[in-house]
UniProtKB/TrEMBL annotation, chain A:
InterPro entries xref list: MetI-like, MetI-like_sf
Chief location bin: membrane
Gene3D superfamilies attached to this UniProt entry: MetI-like
The name this protein goes by in its record: Binding-protein-dependent transport systems inner membrane component
Record flagged with keyword Transmembrane helix: yes
Transmembrane segments annotated in the record for this chain: 33-57, 97-117, 129-154, 174-197, 234-255, 281-308
Species for this entry: Rhodobacter ferrooxidans
GO annotations of cellular component type: plasma membrane
Family indicated by similarity: Belongs to the binding-protein-dependent transport system permease family. CysTW subfamily.
Source domain of life: Bacteria
UniProt keywords, alphabetically: Cell membrane, Membrane, Transmembrane, Transmembrane helix, Transport
Membrane-topology annotation of the record: Multi-pass membrane protein
Occurrences of domain ABC transmembrane type-1 (ranges): 93-298
Automatic annotation (TrEMBL), chain B:
Entry keyword set: ATP-binding, Nucleotide-binding, Transport
Organism: Rhodobacter ferrooxidans
Spans through the membrane: none
Pfam families: ABC_tran (PF00005), TOBE_2 (PF08402)
Coiled-coil blocks: none
ABC transporter domain ranges (all copies): 29-260
GO CC aspect terms: ATP-binding cassette (ABC) transporter complex
Entry annotated with the keyword Acyltransferase: no
Name this protein carries in UniProt: ABC transporter related protein
GO BP: quaternary ammonium group transport
């Protein structure tokens, strides 16, 4: 008897066909390799990335001859010396690292209450609103968003118009360090909230109620219970924001107006403006090094957070 | 007990010593005309009222959705009654936040703090309630000993077994010597053996400290085993408030009779000396005075019905009847029979039988005699259709 559609849905039949076809392409006795087969594309990508990194490392060891515009054949550390001796690059490095630290701190401070309300609110409308407000910026690219801030914060922009209404003379709000950090915080907020939300969801409401019944007011509950239990989320969000900020290009370029470059901007200039591949490669490796150090330090101090997945459950 | 009472500042509600003295006379907890309205549907709790004397162990028993947890959460302060007032030590508490009430609570999922050790969990309420820091380690150790976790204070929560976690939760709820201990079905998730062990453990600790306790459960055995008093709730209303023995022997209505124990109901009308059912007078006693001819239901417990293959063995009973075994369920320590009574219109009653040597005698299909005494069947007015 032919099974009816309700008993044997089309989706199952489709799966049967697909399984039969897959069995012909990749017989079942190879199944112990299936995992590796699925990993292969990702491994290939990482391998290509590693090859690129080795090539960049190689390029960083050859200096550019300014007269002939050819790279030297001999290996030397001159590019690193140049990068670390010239004040301008040190200033750019320092600006990037400090910026990453400030932006991460501010973003986590703002993302925590946002994520907490989003997870805990009883009103599904409020939750939807907060989610939409979170995802909408993803559909607007970083460059367009930075350009939007140019319009709003410009000399004849909305903010200065409003300040004019209360008698404040036009302020220079753009092309300075705070403007870049402001743009970065605004850009990073959704990433941080999305990384935090699962960790906050994992804290049972009963646990907070328990803290209350044991004598803790909301502030002490936050400090002694919610924050420690949300630590994996805070670490995960912090790592994502730190690495994205440290390597950001568009915000410093557009909102900084050329005077507030981060490392990525300096690297861009070496590769595409002065064509000094060697120096650009040296700066790139410095960036990779600093980034790895920061991430490594956070891992050692706080654990890998949500990025540790199922592993370190402490 | 008196030794530890003297350490550390007292919880906030007991700050005025003479107020506490005055309150000693009255009940520890007093619930007066409390309603809870969640907006949709009938009241979650309707006109709840009871008094609980100091040091007593009360269990609120009811099926899920009966409003028992809502009532407990109102006493804890997580919800505010729509109407009525709750008094703890004679003080109205509706406007007192949970963290300002001197109430220890053990939660359904325990709600232990996973980032702290067992000892740190127990120390938490002492720190939050600003006890003298120097006294805390000794007090924590004392309460870990009380729940028989001495030496395990350094363990993380996930390094403890389910039963040990229960014990940490008890110690944490009691260490600041609350006026009242609330248990929100903390034993529901345990396997049977451990649950029965922990029931006795809760009872021991409660007696040792003499703390007034309110427990919420749907498990009738737990209610009967642990409590001094039991409140049965159904559909938001308190059905009965009695000692376990009275609750079992003398249920206030058909719901309570049915909810506790295994009970069969016979439909009929009140007649002098019992219930007239299918033209036969079944001996029974009305719970309250009922006029003859009133539609009624006779409730009789499975262990009050005697059963034998040979009717002569039941000669001493007030009432005997022939029946046929429909089903026999082996429950280990006893056997539960379902016996159809053709004379009463084919109604089936449930009968417990404890005599292991008889098991083989009564297989499904066999004809048996069942019987009971007048005092064992209670008549309730039939529910209005």
């Amino acid at each position: 008897m032919r099974p009816s559609r309700a008993e044997y849905p089309y989706r199952w039949r489709l799966m049967d066909r697909l399984e039969a076809a897959a069995d012909r392409l990749f017989p079942r006795r190879w199944s112990r390799w299936t995992g590796w087969l699925m990993l292969a594309p990702a491994l290939l990508l990482v391998a290509v990335l590693l090859i690129g990194l080795v090539q960049i490392a190689d390029a960083s060891l050859h200096t550019l001859d300014r007269k002939t515009f050819r790279t030297s054949a001999a290996y030397s550390l001159d590019n690193y010396r140049a990068a670390l001796d010239q004040g301008v690059y040190l200033a750019v490095l320092w600006r990037s690292v400090l910026g990453a630290a400030i932006v991460t701190l501010l973003t986590l401070l703002l993302a925590f209450p946002y994520g907490y309300v989003m997870v805990r609110t009883r009103s599904s409308n409020l939750r939807k609103l907060l989610l939409i407000a979170l995802f909408l910026p993803f559909f607007i690219g970083q460059v367009v968003r930075a350009y939007g801030w140019l319009i709003i914060l410009g000399n004849g922009g909305l903010v200065n118009d409003l300040l004019g209404l209360v008698g404040v003379p036009p302020q220079r709000l753009l092309f300075n360090y705070p403007a870049v950090l402001f743009g970065l915080v605004q850009y990073m907020l959704p990433f941080a909230v999305l990384m935090l939300a699962p960790a906050l969801t994992a804290i049972p409401e009963e646990t907070e109620a328990a803290a209350g019944s044991l004598g803790a007011n909301w502030l002490r509950t936050l400090w002694h219970v919610v924050l420690p239990m949300a630590r994996p989320g805070l670490v995960g969000a912090g790592l994502v924001v730190v690495s994205l900020t440290l390597t950001d290009f568009a915000m410093p370029a557009i909102l900084g107006g050329g005077g507030q470059d981060f490392i990525a901007n300096a690297i861009y200039d070496q590769f595409f403006r002065t064509s000094d591949q060697g120096l650009g490669a040296a700066l790139t490796l410095l960036l990779v090094g600093i980034g790895s150090l920061v991430v490594g330090a956070v891992f050692t101090a706080f654990g890998a957070g949500t990025l540790a997945m199922g592993r370190a459950r402490t | 007990m008196g030794r530890i009472r003297q350490q550390g500042p007292q919880p906030m509600i007991r700050d005025a010593a003479n107020a506490a003295q005055a309150a000693k006379a009255g009940p520890a907890v007093s619930v007066r005309g409390v309603d809870m309205d969640f907006g949709a549907g009938p009241l979650a709790v309707a006109d709840a009222g009871f008094d609980l004397a100091r040091g007593r162990f009360l269990t609120i028993l009811g099926p899920s959705g009966s409003g028992k947890t809502t009532l407990l959460r109102m006493i804890a302060g997580f919800q505010t009654p729509t109407r009525g007032e709750i008094f703890i030590n004679g003080e109205p508490v509706s406007k007192v936040a949970p963290h300002q009430r001197a109430i220890g609570m053990v939660f359904q999922k325990l709600a232990l703090f996973p980032h702290l050790t067992a000892a740190q969990n127990v120390a938490f309420p002492l720190k939050m309630r600003r006890f003298d820091a120097r006294g805390i380690p000794a007090r924590v150790e004392q309460f870990l000993d009380l729940v028989r976790l001495g030496g395990l204070g350094g363990r993380r929560i996930h390094e403890l077994s389910g039963g040990q976690q229960q014990r940490v939760a008890i110690a944490r709820a009691l260490v600041f010597q609350p006026d009242l201990l609330l248990l929100d079905e903390p034993l529901a998730a345990l396997d049977r053996k451990l649950r029965e062990e922990m029931q006795l453990e809760f009872r021991r600790i409660q007696r040792e400290l003499g703390v007034t306790t309110i427990n919420v459960t749907h498990d009738q055995r737990e209610a009967l085993v642990m409590s001094d008093e039991v409140i049965v709730m159904e559909a938001g209303r308190i059905q009965q408030n009695a000692r376990p023995v009275d609750l079992y022997r003398d249920p206030a209505n058909a719901f309570v009779a049915n909810f506790i124990g295994v009970t069969s109901f016979l439909p009929g009308r009140v007649a002098p000396g019992g219930l007239e059912c299918g033209g036969i007078l079944c001996p029974g006693t009305p719970r309250q005075a009922l006029a003859a001819g009133t539609p009624a239901r006779g409730a009789i417990r499975a262990e009050q019905i005697r059963m034998a293959a040979d009717g002569a063995a039941l000669a001493g009973l007030d009432f005997r009847l022939q029946g046929q075994v429909r089903d026999a369920i082996f429950e280990g320590e006893r056997q539960l029979y379902e016996v159809v009574l053709p004379a009463l219109g084919g109604i089936a009653v449930q009968v417990y039988h404890h005599d292991a040597s008889d098991f083989a005698l009564t297989a499904p299909g066999q004809t048996v005699t069942v019987g009971w005494n007048r005092r064992d069947m209670i008549l309730f007015p039939a529910a209005v259709p």
